[in-house]
Amino acid sequence: MTQTAAGRDAVDWQLAASRAAALAPVGPQMDRQTLTEFVDELRASALEAPAHVGAVTGLLEPALRAGAGPVYVVDRPRWAAANITMLQGTVGDVLPRPSAPWGHRFAGEELGALLALLASKVLGQYDPFATAPDTGRAGRLVLVAPNILRIHRDIGADRRDFGMWVCLHEQTHALQFAAAPWLAAHMRTTMRSLMTTVADVEGGGRRLQDLLRALPGVVSGERRDAPAGALLDAVLTEDERAAIEQSVAVMSLLEGHADVVMDAVGPRVVPTVKKIRKSFEKRREGTGPVDLVLRRLLGLDAKLAQYRNGAAFVRAVVDRVGHEGFNAVWAGAEHLPAADEIAHPERWVRRVHG
Q1: What is the dihedral of CA 84, 89, 92, 94, to 10 degrees?
Q2: Which residues contact 279 (CB under 8 A, 6 or more apart)?
Q3: Which of 28-44 are b and which e, b meaning 16 or more Cβ less than 10 Å from the residue's Cβ?
């Protein structure tokens, strides 16, 4: 059935999913029995992790709710498909419609290729926007089995320990959204606002031309004025950058908190946690020039900074007011740290606790 330009989606979502599935690299191989054992092991760790996260944070009730959420152990194409569904549901209707009859297909090809690249790097993900059709429960945990298997082999980690370590991180995210029921709607609104702002609906494609002109400087590292280091940041206006910086502050909080909690659970649950953290941090630095270029283009350098800056913020706040004092951050959007407070946690403590 042919669609008019006015009625056509901005992205051919079905094409994006099929392209991601076709392009995603094949993961490491294992026999069926070992694979079944590994998947069962990941599911068991995901079910066990919330109790440990609750014990560290003091958020026992949210931990119980987090532990009751669905867990999916998937391959790379299914991770990409899940994210395409999430993007379509959260921002699909605010993306600018293509003027050319083939524009939505071009966007589908691009999105599929991008997610195919990311599908080999993501270990797990908590999706707060998903709703289970049978229970109506919001949120789901997705674990990407081939990537967890590959990294545990690459860094020589104990398989069970590494799987539990990943589950602790992702279930901390589940706990965050359980502790702050308003957070998913807040983030959805922020995503939609940012997407509308930078979509350049009225710009006649000038934003895309600016992006292409900025590409050499971003890849070479000359454009370090952008706050997140990703390609889009090279052409943001001052107001757009301020909005991005606030969004990055929230993501830094969530990622840093998950990193701190996963390590705080400690050797009682993950005996080799120190070895895993050391090896994993070394791997995060990148393995070669191609990897480094991809990280700059895809904004993965910004992701790495989020983990580090957010973790430093969380540790500093916990040192001053304990986990109980830190947990005030989940009380409402007004308690989220501002961009400058991530770098100066004492300002957040002073503002929230006096």
Answers
A1: -150
A2: 155, 156, 157
A3: eeeeeeeeeebeebbbe
- Say if CB 303 and CB 311 are below 8 A apart: no
Average pLDDT, the chain: 82
Q: What is the pLDDT of residue 297?
A: 45
Q: Are 46 and 62 in contact (CB under 8 A)?
A: no
Phi, psi of 129, rounded to the nearest 5 degrees: -95, -15
Using CA atoms, how far residue 64 sits from 52, 125, 165, in Å, is: 11, 19, 19
Query: DSSP secondary-structure letter at 25?
Result: P
Q: Are 72 and 43 in contact (CB under 8 A)?
A: no
Q: pLDDT value at position 305? A: 65
Start-end of H helices in the chain: 13-23, 32-57, 60-67, 76-91, 103-119, 145-154, 159-179, 183-198, 206-220, 238-264, 273-284, 289-298, 300-326, 339-343, 345-353
Question: 307 is written with which tokens?
Answer: 């983990």
Distance CA 92, CA 296 (A): 25
Which tokens hold the place of 190?
């922020």
SS3 221: coil
For the chain, which residues score pLDDT lower than 70?
Answer: 1-8, 98, 132-136, 197-236, 284-307
159-179 vs 60-67: helix axis angle to the nearest 10?
A: 110
Supply the DSSP string of 55-76, one letter for each residue. Answer: HHHS-HHHHHHHHTS-EEEE-H
Going 339 to 128 to 278 to 323, the CA torsion angle's sign is: positive
Name which of 131, 148, 150 is nearest 140 in CA terms. Answer: 131
Structure-block tokens of residue 142: 């997705």
Provide CB contacts within 8 A for 250, sequence distance 6+.
Answer: 187, 190, 336, 337
pTM: 0.84
- Rounded Cα distance between 54 and 124, Å, is 19
In whole angstroms, give the CA distance from residue 151 to residue 162: 9
Q: Please list, in sequence order, all residues whose beta carbon lies within 8 angstroms of the beta carbon of residue 97, skipping any fewer than 6 positions away.
A: 5, 6, 8, 9, 10, 104
